[in-house]
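To fix ideas at the outset, we first show an illustrative case, written as a sequence plus integers encoding its fold:
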Amino acid sequence: MGKSKRIAVTGLTGQVVSSLIERAPNGIEMLALGRPRFDLSSRDMVLASLRSVRCDAIVNAAAYTQVDKAESEPELAMNVNGAGAGYVAETASELNVPLLHLSTDYVFEGLCDRPYREDDEPCPTGAYGRSKLEGEKQIASRCDNCVILRTAWVYSPFGANFVKTMLRLGETRDEIGVVADQIGNPTSALDIADALLAIAKRLVHDSNTGLRGVFHLTGDGDASWADMAEAIFSAAAARGRKPVRVKRIATADYPTPARRPANSRLDNAKLKANYGIALPNWRNSLDACVARLIPN
């Protein structure tokens, strides 16, 4: 990673930032940048903060992530996820360091009958997806030495996520209705962090253009939200929690301001071919996450 071995990561308390800080090996210093010192919507703040830390690589993990709220705050989402990503790319290019940027399955419409590949045409249906797609465009146009990594259905022992919500609800309910007609790839933020660290190391030492561009990065295997909930409650029951039934419902039974893609599955073959990286099966990583969240 070079002499200093420092990676700047945008965000302070998010799932991926927390996972990177935990997973970083000895000799790699993670420099987390967040409010109030760092705000993606401020170009001056982004440039000043990143210039000051003297890093070997940048991970842009900070984002506006409130999918439903973005429908009523589209300008804010676009400022952070679109323009803000551009500011980070502009700085990475100026500093001549590789940039790893996290994007999302929401750039796709969700109507494809197979997992989406990197060369499939994006077609976001909501404000959040549009803002993340704009971020991809800003980065690609401003920084050649970059990797855009689309991920999905992220969970971890940190922050707010589906696994923690299900475990909380399961403490007081015997049955929970969960959507069964949306399919995707549950992905551990800890697995994402491991991949980011490996990718950053390669980018610093290898100028191969095949290592740059857009890649998909999700857990192995797919599931519906109901499948994932059942796996969560099964893992919880194995650790002494009471059984919880999952009532499989349709998307129409659980309306939300933002429309979710029916098919969020992403094809990770390009990442495996170019980097030799494949994330573990989601069930194994999920079980490990539940084990951490439920003390013995």
